[in-house]
Queue: 4 jobs
Job 1
Amino acid sequence: MCGRFTLKTPIESICRQINLFDIWPQEPQGLQSIPRYNIFPSEEILVLRKGLGSPVDTARAPAVELLTMQWGFSAEKMKRIVNTRAETILDQERTPRGEPAKRCVIVADGYYEWKQEGTHKIPYYFFRPQQKIFGMAGLWRTAKDQAENITESCTIITVPANEKAGQIHERMPALLDITQTLRWLEVDLRRESLQDLLIPAPNAWLQSHPVHHRINRVGIDDPQCVKAVYCDEQRSLF
């Protein structure tokens, strides 16, 4: 699964790395003024989706909207569905509640996973070389509360882990580069293309190191979260 991730990269750098032909209608304001080192479920996150109402132009990259959504679909008993297995999507391209799926891509530059060691879980940080951003394939939907307020929320799709990530956890996010991101957002994406995209990332894609268990605490969000720590440092670093 993927229960936490990071987005430390400034919005200007994100847009340069994405290098899209269109970001429609405009960049969200304010979200990336503060780097995020430990994003929790239910928080607002940065998402790419096909521009609603924008024309389809097969001669160039699709018009894409960059916006914020709440991470996690609301579920019963105050729980949130923050991850959806790729096997569910490939079996039937629907969200967990049976609504028609709407594809999106969650923007990130790292994510956390926990390794079970005896009675303890050791957190690890996964990231790309040179701290490049990447996409995580996702689904989004809208929901209304009792006051008729509309909320847009999303979930991250997970796949079986590759050999390297599998040493820490059996699953990982479905990671996408820029080309794969644009394909994932295509309106008429065929099932065969979904299968090609919802696969483990190559081993060389990611680097990782253990981090301090302080990231388990709600509200801990600073550069120390992603710092590599080993052995006794797990106890001494706050």
Job 2
Amino acid sequence: MDKIINYSTVCGAADDPYAHTSATVVSDRDFWRWGSDNRLPSTLAALSRRSTAHRRIINDKADYISGKGVAFDREVPLLGAFVERVNGDNESLRRVINKIAFDKSLFGNAFLEVVTNADHSFLSLYHQDASRCRVARDSQHVLLHHDWDNFSISEAVSLPLYPLFEPQDDGTLRSIIHYKDYEPLFEHYGVPPYIAGMNVSTITYKTDRWNISRLDNSFQPSGMMIVDEAVDNEQDANRLVRYAESRFAGNPGQVLFIVKDGSEKDNSRFIPITSQNDGDWKQLHDQATSDIVVAHSWFRSLSGLDYSSGFNSERILHEYEIALNTVILGEQSEILEPIVQVISRTLGIDASSLTIINRPPTRSKPIYMKVWEARKADGLEYDPEDERQQAYLSEITKYNVTKVG
């Protein structure tokens, strides 16, 4: 049976931007399962640890989305102090955004806890591991638990979904922001963008594992060993097979042992099993890797998949420009929007100047490029009409200017 805890004191005035509700402790059946068995986050996390290309793309997307830092209006010192330290763990805003971007890239969901008090005298932001979070049945709370395989309601923490806030035992007001990627038919949780590429991610993992098995068994060729040995009973035959396997099978061991009745002439022999499908396996692995990149809506050159064919800085900059305008800026806007709103409402300062600083993976630019074009390529503010930005890079490099902006 659900237990309702009523708080007699409602913090804040009637026009307070934060809505307050009673803290609700829900039963173990009052949350929406994440996946058919409630273990989808664990599956996605395990897959990301096994597929090299898949994991590289997730890491790179998170790094590009979180950028190189957060720019802000220097005339608002309180905002600058907050950007440098957003919680009691001494984490910067950029660090927290990086964790959110990683979870969104991996799970299609991310959770950010907001902590303040009735006087709005402070504000803290904490990233919460998405795999620990589940949406409550009332769709207004999120349950946090350390082990969903052994769920206990007494160990769970319930936080209201932003913009609702609820008072806690420590006197703070807390809420949690739920970021999720939209997907039709999925209301309570988002779906990662690579959902169509989960099978090909598994393929790359299995082809890598196959290569490892071949390496482990390199000195023990696969085949069939026929042992011509007289045995009196089945137990002696099994004992002989186990002995042969321990001596010659190797690890993981791909030798089939057959014991047959001995004859006057020893006919023991080894029949190797050769495989001619190495090329097929390589093509399968390469095709799966390409499909992973497509499923992530990402680019090969931004994930180091084409370095073997040469470092093409022009292609990298070109694909970075496309990624910036199709993926990165949109994700940054989605992450920053509620953060800017929370800062403005809680601290009473204008946080609209918060901007994630973007830098391309390479700073190599042709000398015939103008300054404003270089700033545009770096994701910085630019003005084609500014006379100072009309100069060509070739004109300023002679003064040992190595950084524009």
Job 3
Amino acid sequence: MGIYEISLATVVCINIILALGLNMISGFCGQISLGHAAFYGIGAYTAALMVKAGFPIPLTIAAGMISAGVAGLIVGLASLRVRHDFLAITTMGVGFLFLGIVRQQELLGGELGISGIPSAGLGKIGYLAVVFAIASLSAVFSLWIKRSWMGFAFDAVADDEDTARVVTVDVGAYKLAAFAMGTAMAGVAGGLYTYFARFLMPDDFGFITSITVLSMVAVGGIGSVFGVIAATIILTLMPEFFRFISDYKLLVYGALLFAVMRFAPEGLAGFARDAYRRLTVKKQAGETV
């Protein structure tokens, strides 16, 4: 692989971690979040400050994860009081609040961002291997959560909070857990992005980024791990392979979201599942005849 292909693969892996984090919140637990990029940014800026201070990679990534997770836990407290559209507005406000703070703080570079971030020192291939390993662990972790008792509790909260309380599910605790884990994953993605980009700007973590990640989750199928991974790969590579649409990326994402919600409400995962069922039924019908 050339440098371009390696860089593109690294971005795909970072986006997978980021999208799986949002899927933990919105897909598994049903909590709408429009400010996921803020936690991505918290992890990135935390890692940037630590790496410039001379800390090694494991500590910087861990610090990004913890800082974003703690911030997510705090925001998760708001989910205990608001739901649905109001929660979406609250999380969107968190995103704008993050950008406002970053742009006003000289320590964080203000509008000019943070530059001169040292590399990971692993080489392009070595760093891709690290990012790929973390993305794989994130996928395994998401599958484990989905199929565990916690995943069943998340499903109950997402379906109907009041009914979940009736069957003794601690709704508040599971909401906080979803926010903490999902935002911590975003923090890991942010820390990895810091070493990759080596230059951070506030706009890298704006509302457009949150919508892009939400598109990946929605197109893949809310709650589906493999669907989200597939959609993330497609939506990350699509602007690269079709350069003529790169200036209209948001328009294309919007059109995709509309098409998915209209023709495949369960995303790529639901579409693939329905197609498989139809083929199975036709095959069984043919064998019967």
Job 4
Amino acid sequence: MGFWERIRDELKKTVEEGWSAVKDGAKIAAEKGEEVAKIGRIRYQQFLLHKKAERRFADLGGMVYDMAKPPYENPLSNPEVMKVIEEIKKIEEESQQLEEEKERIRKKESQEEKPPEEEKQG
């Protein structure tokens, strides 16, 4: 799945999860307040990045569309197109870093919830 499809799916998922979170927010916050808050902030940062990427994809599509008229031009030879592509790649990297941060938080929180293993007696 390409980055564009992941953004579209993630935006749709964010809206759906947002409503679910509103309904279940009090219960979840009481059980996992800190984790939910940290992950919520990261998801919001990802949402903003994805909205930015969505705008840049739209810009890119407009540029390519304009180049599809005679005289035809290879979009990848256009410096403006390449600049937008590089911006999208940066956004994708930032999004991946945030995703990794969410996973670190989840792993840390799940490890803290587990009681320490008792030493095995031989």
